[in-house]
Design a protein that fits this description.
The chain has 251 residues and is an alpha+beta fold. Helix content is 21%, strand content 56%. The strands form two sheets. Strands 1-2-3-4-5-6-7-10 form an eight-stranded antiparallel beta barrel. Strands 8-9 form a two-stranded antiparallel ribbon. Strand 6 and strand 7 form a beta hairpin. It starts with a helix and ends with a helix.
Length: 251
């Protein structure tokens, strides 16, 4: 009787230890499943392409202007973007003494730094940046009038039509702007630019008063401008974000 009770107690004790071990294994496995079910946080990287709406719309309401500019940027880190613009302009300027037409193409390359802290999955921008710009263009002097100190007599207008080809200019731009997502992957933005000429090939007996991509020179090396863009973001790849808070707590 004693031996039977002894074997029965040993069997029950062994069964209880087995159940406890099995329960611990199940709990551990469920914890692993829960951990695995949490999706890692990712950040999108890609190419954003668009057009300058200001130049497009101006081409419709300003008879003296035709222009088109394409813009693009590539996100290569959380805060930094490579950026570029390419375009062409055909602008007729009517001053008191001169009437001339400038035609040419230009491109700009540089970078942007985004100071805005985005929510996860967003690519809004509050940024500053720089560009190197270069333009190749021609000038046509349509007509001009001779300046007289005495304004009592009408100024005679002299028709010219003289053309100056093979002109070029290079400059540096400092930029500040905003880009905001209004729909999935669709962005609108605007930027202000301060320009300074590096090189300027000036024709004989004339001056480059307007340079495509640079705007008016204002009688010197200084220029200013802005653009208003609509662009579309094309995601190319994603990277997993590390949880910096957990890493600091572990340390």
């Amino acid at each position: 009787m004693k031996s039977t009770f002894k074997y029965t107690f040993s069997f029950c004790l062994l069964l209880c230890s087995f159940l406890v071990t099995a329960q611990k294994t199940i709990v551990k496995d469920s914890t692993v499943i829960k951990k695995d079910s949490i999706k890692p946080k990712t950040e999108r990287y890609g190419l954003r392409l668009g057009v300058d709406l200001f130049k497009v719309s101006r081409s419709f309401y300003d008879k003296n202007y035709k222009g088109l500019e394409f813009v693009g940027d590539f996100k290569f880190s959380r805060k930094h973007y490579l950026a570029a613009e390419i375009g062409n302009e055909n602008k007729t300027v009517e001053d008191n003494q001169l009437n001339f037409t400038t035609k040419g193409t230009y491109f700009k390359v540089g970078f942007d730094y985004n100071s805005y802290e985005n929510w996860l999955g967003m690519n809004n921008m509050l940024y500053v940046g720089m560009r190197y710009g270069a333009s190749s263009f021609s000038q046509t002097l349509n007509n001009y009038s001779i300046y007289y100190a005495n304004n009592y007599f009408p100024k005679p207008i002299i028709e010219s039509g003289e053309k100056f080809d093979g002109l070029s200019a290079q400059w540096i731009e400092v930029i500040a702007g905003v880009k905001a997502e209004i729909y999935t992957n669709l962005y609108i933005g605007f930027s202000f630019r301060m320009n300074n000429l590096i090189t300027n090939k000036v024709p004989e007996n004339f001056d480059n008063l307007y340079i495509p991509g640079f705007n008016r020179t204002y009688g010197g090396n200084f220029g200013a401008g802005f653009n208003y863009t609509v662009s579309y973001f094309v995601p190319l790849y994603k990277t997993i974000l590390k949880n910096k808070v957990k890493e600091k707590s572990k340390k």
